[in-house]
Amino acid sequence: MLYDAWCSLGKLCYSELDNKNKVGYWLMYKLLLRQVQYRLLVLISAVVFVISATFGSLAVAQTLPNQMDIRVLIDVSGSMKKTDPKTLRIPALQVLTQLLPHGSKAGVWQFSNYPEAIVPLGLVDPQWQKQATTAAQTISSKGQFTDIGAALKAAAFSQQDQASGRQLHLVLLTDGMVDVSKDAAENQRARRTLLEPILQQYIDMGARVHTIGLSHQADERTLRAMAHLTDGLFEVAENADQLLDIFLRALDNTVITQQVPVQIDEQTFEVHANLESMTIVVEKNGDHHIKLRDGNQRLFGKHQTLASQQWQSSSTHDVISIQQPVAGTWALVSPTAKLKRVNVVGQLQILLQQSHQNIKVGQRAYLDVQLANEKGILLSENQLQGFDLGVEVMLDGQHISSQAQVFLAHEKTRVHLPVIDQAGMYDLNISVVKGQLVREISRNLRVHPLVAVALSVELNPVNTAPTQDITVTVQQPSAISQEAMVISKEQASPALQALMQAQTKVTTPAASADAQATTPAASADAQATTSEPQPSVEVEVEVEVEAEAEVKPKP
Fold this sequence. Notes:
The chain is an alpha+beta fold. The chain has 5 domains: about 1-60; about 70-250, Rossmann fold (3-Layer(aba) Sandwich); about 270-345, Immunoglobulin-like; about 350-450, Macroglobulin (MG2) domain (Immunoglobulin-like), CATH 2.60.40; about 450-555, no CATH class. The strands form 8 sheets. The protein has a 6-stranded mixed sheet, sandwiched between helices. A 5-stranded mixed sheet has the order 16-22-21-18-19, with no helix packed on it. It is globular, with a radius of gyration of 30 Å.
C-alpha cells in the first residue's frame, strides 16, 4: 500500500511539471523509489527472521516416543519345569505387559513343539492389558521340543510393520537349545536356518531382537549372536527370580520409560502437578496387604481404589496405575514390600536416540536427547532454560563416569559416552532435571571383547552333531593374550557396520594346511558386510590396534 501511494504521488507531481524540469525530476524520483523498495525489503526480511526465530522450533512436531511394536516369545518346553519350577514367567510377563505404553502395538506367543499366540497382536490399551494378565496364567512347561525358529517365523515383522514408522522389537525367553527332533542333523539344520534366513528377515526389517537365556543350559552362543546381529541385548538369568529384572531392562531398552526417583530408605517418591498418569510397581516379598499413602495423605489398598486407579496383583508383584495423581509425597506402607519403580507420563516428553546398544572395546557410542511437550513439539530456547541433562555410566553397580550439560535449542543435544576398555553390560542412567522436577531413563550398553570371530560352530548337547571349536587369541605388543568371544556367523547390523568400517581390520592367516582347507578367503566378512552366510568355517578378527592373530584349534 505504501509503495502504491508513493508511485501515485510521483506520477501526479510529474504531470504538473513543464518539459524543462521533467527529466531531472524523473531521475530523482526513480532514485528515491529504489530506496523505498530497498527499505521495504529489509523491513520484511527482519519481520520474517524474528517470526522464524521465535516460532520455528515449535513449527514441526516430532515423532513421540513409545511408538513401538514389541513381540514377546515365551518358552514352555518341558525343561522349564527345572529352570522355572515356580513358573515365575507368569508374574514377570504380567508386570511387563502392564508397563507397555498405551498406543503401542504388542503380542505374546508361547512355543515349544510349535508356536501359539496367547495374546493377539494389537494396540495396547486397558482391555489388551487385562487380556494379557489372564493369558499369562496359561503358561506351563509341557512341550517336548524347543523350536525357536518356528517361533520367530510366527512373530515375524512384515514390510507393512516396517513402513508404519514404529520401532520394532522382539523379546525371546528360552532355557534350551534349538531342538526340533531327536535327529542331530535335523537340529543342526534348524539352527542354521534360524541364524541365516529367519534372522535375516528381522535384520532386513530393522528389528532388534533381545534374547534372554534362563540358566546357562541355554544356547548362549546362538542367543548372543541373534542379539548382536540385530543390535539387541542378550542376558542370562541365573535363576527364575531374576526374570522380572531382566524383563524390565529389556523394556527400558525398547521403550522410553520416564521414572521418578524412589527414596529407598523411606520408600517414598515425589509427584509433581500436571502428571497424566503414573504406574507403580511393588515387589511384595510376601505381603499381600500392601497400602499406599497419596499426596493428600489418604491411605488406600487394593480394595479401596478410586475410579481413576487400577490395581493388578500377581503372585510376586503388584502394579498400580493411577490417572492424574495428586501432587505431593507418596509412600508405600508395608513391613516387607519394596517399591520397584514408578513410571510417569506427563506434559514433558523426552526424545532419546542411542547410537548403538552393542560396541567393542575402544569404540564410542553416543546419546541424542531432545525435550518436547505432550504433542511432540520441541521446547523453545526460553522453555529449555533451567533444564539440565546428566548421564551416568555404571558397571555392576560401580560408578564409571558421569557428565552433565545444558540442552541446546533447535537441535539435538549429543552426549558422547566415554571410551570403555573393559567388556561387560553397562548401565546408562539418564536424568533430566529442572529444580525439583526429576525424570530418569535407564538404558544399557553391551561392550564386547576387542576381537570378534565369525564361526560355524556348534555346541555338543544331546541330539546335536559335534563340530570343532576354534579359539582366536590376539598377541598384543605387550605379549598379553586375550581369548576371543566366539559368535556364531557374526554379521553386524547396518547401524554397527558404519561404526566398524572406521576401525582397522586384520584377517587371520591360515593356522595349518587343514585350517586353510576349511577356511575360504573372508575378505567380504572382514568388512562385516556379508549378505549371505557361507556354509564353511570362516574366521575374522577385527581389532583397533595392531595385532598378530593366531588361530588355535581346541583339543
